[in-house]
TrEMBL record:
Protein name: Helix-turn-helix transcriptional regulator
All copies of domain HTH araC/xylS-type, residue ranges: 161-258
Keywords assigned by UniProt, alphabetized: Transcription, Transcription regulation
Length: 274
């Protein structure tokens, strides 16, 4: 069950505000909450202090585990789905004030940036000098954060949209490439080439990336490794942990612990934004 995400303010159009940085805290209680498709001129940083968020844009699905954030460039249509009991911060930034990619990306957030975001969201409107100082430091530090490869490339191609929708609804679906090809009326080789051309990934790697996103989302919501492994259709917990460790360099518990600390600077799954 999903409910609309409730903001602590009403009738606020962030694009009408001249401030270079606007930070808003949003707490999700009970069930999952969603912000449907929307867009704004300002860029948006979606930061999770607790729980997780899945951000969907036309080109992909992006995961925001705790202590990470997704950057959404200004003008890009997107939607957000938050896990139950998530603690979120939405940071809106004037595009010309910061050098960040013109594409979505998941960023690790350092303890310094975490405290800046939390503090900015608590600043009273009349505390202008301190708010401006915090915003200046945030704008300098944010482009230095490493990028985490926690996204699933999506394609507008109708047959791939059909497959992606089915796998998102049932991540445990273990149909082979040949079985999917038959379902969408293509040869196996033609479907394989189509997936690589549209996503840059093989079918197996594409499905694995979906599994990683679902796994991190559910683990950060409090699900056990055993439960997530079963929900994703793995034959054993060991097989799931092996996949996770091979893809992200650490088993689930250690990976989630690591992103709650200082962001990694040397990782096979991360790179600088600049």
């Amino acid at each position: 069950m999903r409910q609309p995400l409730r903001f602590p303010w009403s009738n606020l159009d962030v694009d009408d505000r001249s401030a270079p940085v606007i930070a808003v805290r949003v707490d999700v209680t009970g069930t999952r909450a969603e912000v449907p498709d929307h867009q704004h001129r300002k860029g948006q940083l979606i930061f999770a202090l607790g729980g997780g968020v899945t951000c969907r844009v036309p080109s992909g699905l992006w995961m925001v585990p705790p202590h990470c954030a997704v950057w959404v460039p200004g003008g890009m249509k997107h939607s957000n789905l938050a896990t139950a009991n998530a603690r979120l911060f939405f940071v809106y930034i004037e595009p010309e004030m910061i050098e960040l990619p013109d594409r979505c990306c998941t960023l690790s957030i350092s303890p310094l940036l975490r405290e800046l975001i939390v503090d900015l969201s608590d600043q009273a409107a009349d505390d202008g000098a301190r708010r401006d100082l915090l915003a200046t430091v945030l704008l300098r530090e944010l482009p230095r954060m490493p990028v985490q490869q926690l996204h699933l490339p999506l394609s507008p191609e109708p047959r791939l949209k059909r497959i992606a929708k089915a796998l998102a609804e049932d991540p445990s679906d273990r149909r082979t490439l040949a079985e999917w090809a038959k379902r969408v009326a293509l040869s196996e080789s033609s479907l394989a080439r189509l997936i690589v051309r549209e996503t840059g990934l093989s079918f197996g790697r594409w499905r694995q990336q979906l599994h990683l996103i679902v796994a991190i989302r559910e683990l950060t919501s409090g699900a056990s490794v055993q439960q997530v492994s079963a929900d994703l259709g793995y034959d054993s917990v060991a097989a799931f942990i092996t996949m996770f460790k091979k893809a992200l360099g650490k088993p689930p518990a250690k990976y989630l612990a690591s992103i709650a600390q200082d962001p990694p600077t040397n990782s096979a799954t991360s790179s600088r934004t600049s």
